[in-house]
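Second opinion, please. Please look over this fold, written as tokens:

===
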Amino acid sequence: MSGQQKHRIQVPDGLRDVLLEFSIAYLLEQPGDVIDYAVEFFSKLQENRKTTMITSNEPVSPDESIMSHEEEPLVNRYASRRKSVFAETYDPENDDDDDGARAIFPKTDEQRARLCDSVKNILLFRSLDKEQMNEVLDAMFEKKVKAKDYIIKQGDDGDNFYVIESGVYKAYVGEDQKHIHTYENSGSFGELALLYNMPRAATIQAETEGQLWAMDRQTFRRILLKSAFRKRKMYEALLDAVPMLKTLQNYERMNLADALIPQTYSKGERIIKQGDVADGMYFIEDGKVSIRIQQDVGEVEISNLEKGQYFGELALVTHRPRAASAYAVDNVKVAFLDVDAFERLLGPCMDLMKRNIGDYESQLVKIFGSKNNISDIR
């Protein structure tokens, strides 16, 4: 047997489908720990398989309820499917069409402001940076509805994803159209049929007049999945360059990458303020950041940080107010890690960060000449 034949591995269709479904679920929910999430996901899949006594590989009609993301974990809604249909599977890794035609629907300032308010709490969009969010806003179009209008019908092909601006909408499932959920002036629906290229799993009917924002299938999948994929790859590369994080296991860095939130600051803008309560720490993606301490003569710069470095962690370790302020030297992109994720994900790095406190104070002594001069900033 040749070396080429010996190492050729045939991936079974069933394995490919299950892993693809898990990957999409993970990208959508972005949980804190990938291992815990995988255990829960496959345990539910196995439990449902035993309950429904599925003995073949044929697709099973979806019976999940359409609920808002905040109310029901996504895994509960499709764990009953043994095998999903991906006739139009989207592969973000092989999509290099960055300059292709994009859907743009012109909007007035008033319309854009209303749309921004409607999407700000949509869980699906939480990982988008400013540029990606603008692409989302450009791609959405208004849809006005009247009472008793059907927005989507169970069994139909999926065409659009919807965000609610106003109105009351009810979701029904099954042949008897059992009422399972009511949306009141907020929320979103219609994402599952677009992601899985499956028929609509429920009927959504307007109870009152209302206003929706819609996005077509291809734009929705490209923005959502490609941005999630790029965010993971970009932040993994960023975190790999941080010496402090070398103590983390690979899956721990992956969890950390998923928890980071992109933020941008203009030249001269203050990022954190000395004396404030700490809400998180920052990893620098691009640009330079000036760290300054307030003294009698004004603010004095104590360090200048660049891409791959981080700041804001000491206040989280000591549980004290910010010891210094941070300013954008030029246009800066940072990855923000909030305090809850910090405590959950960076436990293995805590000893190193505590040691950094001593290095930080030594640096201040060199600048100001005495610990007495800096005792009031901690």
